[in-house]
């Protein structure tokens, strides 16, 4: 059954990679938004004790999502890329986020061959997990698994599920000069504002004896 024609179009989730020297970011849109999103927050207690109620920093937050990729619609309209490669390009766009640039690898090999003890330092992209305008978070990808569920006659994958384990990078992880520092701080301030909207003034909580 088709959706109501006037229903608002759901925003697509995405991963955005901002390279240090690139003029434009690389955006990987989710073909289908995950049905569920699992978040886990581990508080950073001031004294480490079980009764700690003040905290030394933002909690360590992890996000787990499962992204679905499917070439069926593209194959039905004879899309040339889908016909030739299936969903290889979409998988490559996601997998590229956990690879160092090949140019850095080649340069470091050349430096080693010349006897240099210096290597090009790792300066990976700033990766943002975008889940609506109210949730734009700097993250690192800690877990990545792919389940290819169908293939074409040339063994190109045409349907797959990608499980992503993300760790949110807070102001405790990023220096003040990192662009992700301000993004996380803005996220925390927005969370504080939204929390004030969830008034609990009507709950019968005794504040004094």
Kindly estimate the percentage of residues that lie in beta strands according to DSSP. 25-35%
Largest sheet: 7 strands, antiparallel
Supply Rg. 22 Å
Distance between the termini: 58 Å
Taking strands numbered 1, 2, ... along the chain, how are they ordered across the largest sheet?
Answer: 2-1-5-6-7-4-3
Q: Care to describe what's here?
A:
- The chain has 209 residues and is an alpha+beta fold.
- Helices cover 24% and strands 32% of the residues.
- The chain has helices spanning 72-76, 80-85, 88-95, 102-113, 179-197, and strands at residues 14-18, 26-29, 37-45, 55-70, 126-130, 136-151, 157-168.
- It has a seven-stranded antiparallel β-sheet with strand order 2-1-5-6-7-4-3.
- Strand 5 and strand 6 form a beta hairpin.
- The radius of gyration is 22 Å and the shape is globular.
- The relative contact order is 0.16.
Topology:
Elements: E1 14-18, E2 26-29, E3 37-45, E4 55-70, H1 72-76, H2 80-85, H3 88-95, H4 102-113, E5 126-130, E6 136-151, E7 157-168, H5 179-197
Antiparallel strand pairs: 1-2, 1-5, 3-4, 4-7, 5-6, 6-7
